[in-house]
Amino acid sequence: MKLKHLLLGSATAVLVAAPVAAQTQVEFWHAFTGRLGELVAAQVETFNNSQSDYVVEATHKGNYSETLNAGIAAFRAGEQPDILMVFEVGTATMMGAKGAIKPVYEVMADSGADFDSDAYIGAVKGYYTTSEGEMLSLPFNSSTPVLWVNRDALEEAGIDPDTDMSTWEQVGGVLDKLKEAGSECPMTTAWQSWIHLENLSAYHDTPFATKANGFGGVDTELALNGDVQVAHIQAMGDWAKEGKFIYAGRRNEGGANFRSGDCALFTESSAGYAGIKSEAKFDFEVRPLPYWASAVDAPQNTIIGGASLWVMEGQSDEEYKGVAEFLNFLSSAEVQAKWHQDTGYLPITSAAADLTREQGFYDENPGTDVAVKQMTTNAPTENSKGLRLGSFDQIRGIIDEELEAVWSGDKDAKTALDSAKQRGDELLRRFEQTSR
Amino acid sequence: MEKRVTFKGLWLPLLLVLPQIVITAVFFFYPAGQAIWQSLFIPDPFGLSMKYVGLGNFEYLLGNPYYRASFVTTAIFSILVTVVSMGIALYLAVLADRLIKGSGVYRTLLIWPYAVAPAVAGVLWLFMFNTRVGVVSWYLGLLGYDWNHVLNGEEAMGLVVVASAWGRISYNFLFFLAGLQAIPKSVIEAAAIDGARFWTRFRTIVFPLLSPTTFFLLVVNIVYAFFETFGVIHTITSGGPQQSTTILVYKVYADGFVGQDLGSSAAQSVILLFIVGLLTIVQFKFIERRVHY
């Protein structure tokens, strides 16, 4: 209770503090600090200087969860912003909140702005569109998991740094050699549920949940205890037992271990690029996420993580026009190409990817297009379009707990994933009750 | 006999206690009432609709083995935090009480940790025990002990207990020291003349005379362990590994503010409220009888 009041208090304080101007104000709440925060501020400034009708006011509201909570608290108090950044796992929560949000395709249509949803990359926008192809929120920052390789560490262990690691079978062989050569940390990971279950499922064209991963309705159930997932988690569990996979934490704690040169291999978001590039004092490389050759002949596509921009209900038509202008500005090829190159996030339109290629960025920074290719080589299927599950942040928490039981050797993969399914399904049923 | 001041009439006394009543009503009864009300519903996060479920939220919670396990975790955690922080504080207070020179400096230094916010304390301890760069874990590694609170539940519990108890030692120390100094020296001297050694004096005179302080601290520390250790747990373990450090209040936060499940979160608040009320009653009814004022 206390926290909620605090949030409400700070939300109103910010609104009161906002200066009053003749131009239409567009309020934009986001979750970025540091370098990313500066880049967002630069985008907003460019937009504000480019026209004189609207002023976008960008406000940082804490991390992803805190930003979502601030938005919810503000909505309850009738003080919601025009645009709210929500991370991908909050998608189902936002979708379920009919009456609190205004779908992006509607905002665009009402304001008469040029809007072609086909311009957006399928695997990126798919996460945020309905089954009918209507875009609900605008993808803002999207990334996908890749394999980061410390080439120096491989060489030290007497392994050819160019060795093929397209499949997990090959990675297993490399891990054996690294361990034999005395590596303290052959492999680590960030975001275990996102990479080793959600993306693993999509990449092998296997459902993570029934009803098309939840796109088909809220009566979805988890399907993450299938054969592919169990086999993968069991293999990872075995590697953990043998000291070949080192678990560092639920979020991206493993990043520090990789950037310092301790770990040879690292599964992490493509958006880790900026940090790794600035800190790593070794020769590193980006490889596509491995797949199990025993399960599929060739991988499907991976899915995205990151956040999208939701337009909130209850604003004036003028403000919605401003919102439409701003979203169009953000989608333009130049802005997107710059964002993609600065951050390592994926471009949201094909035009931005093409522009980046024309500018020679991929040639100068080899490996930066691995993620783009991994996402776009195949058209997404029902299993690889994304996930739409209620209470998904909590379900990820449950998955984290169960995976920790596998890494510590307390449970085998099958038992842990069965338990994750059963516990997650309970939350899905509760969410189903609220969204009726 | 106690001296009582009596007010005539009804209005003046009512007026005098009014500010207290208003504050309690606004900051305690209203939110508590809201929590009880919300615990009967499954609301959607945006407050657009509420579905009445009666005691459904409680049924859902109490039927969940992971929630029930969280009670045990909370009990272990609270007992450990209370025992560790009070034990060390008492030991330090007894030492400080015997100091003749430099007791002021000693006291001031011991009070410092209390000024550190729980979340900051959490980060400090986490840094020392970080599995990769932590000083302590590095020394433990030299001794051949592989510290890994990221996967080892007992080590994680130990770490959050130490981090939560650490800042609390100062607070307890202050009260114990004040309590010790309030004990008449003549009693202790008399016992010393009769040939009672330090340990006997402590056991038979000092500790019983200190019991009001100990009792007060027991109540306050348990409430602290139940409610205020959130920051430490959030920064160090986020309730993990698995659920080994998920105490009740952390689950309230996780379900309400991460999961947006306000119905369940409210129901958990009500259960917590009930437990702490019960604990306090038990403490006052049974333990207070053994306290000598």
TrEMBL record, chain A:
GO terms for cellular component: periplasmic space. The keyword Signal applies. It is found in: Periplasm. Gene3D superfamilies: Periplasmic binding protein-like II. CDD domains: PBP2_UgpB (cd14748). Keywords: Signal, Transport. Residues 1-22 form the signal peptide. Its main location: periplasm. Part of the ABC transporter complex UgpBAEC involved in sn-glycerol-3-phosphate (G3P) import. Binds G3P. NCBIfam families: PRK10974.1. Belongs to the bacterial solute-binding protein 1 family. PANTHER family: ARABINOSE-BINDING PROTEIN-RELATED, SN-GLYCEROL-3-PHOSPHATE-BINDING PERIPLASMIC PROTEIN UGPB. The complex is composed of two ATP-binding proteins (UgpC), two transmembrane proteins (UgpA and UgpE) and a solute-binding protein (UgpB). This is sn-glycerol-3-phosphate-binding periplasmic protein UgpB. It comes from Neptunicoccus cionae. The gene is ugpB.
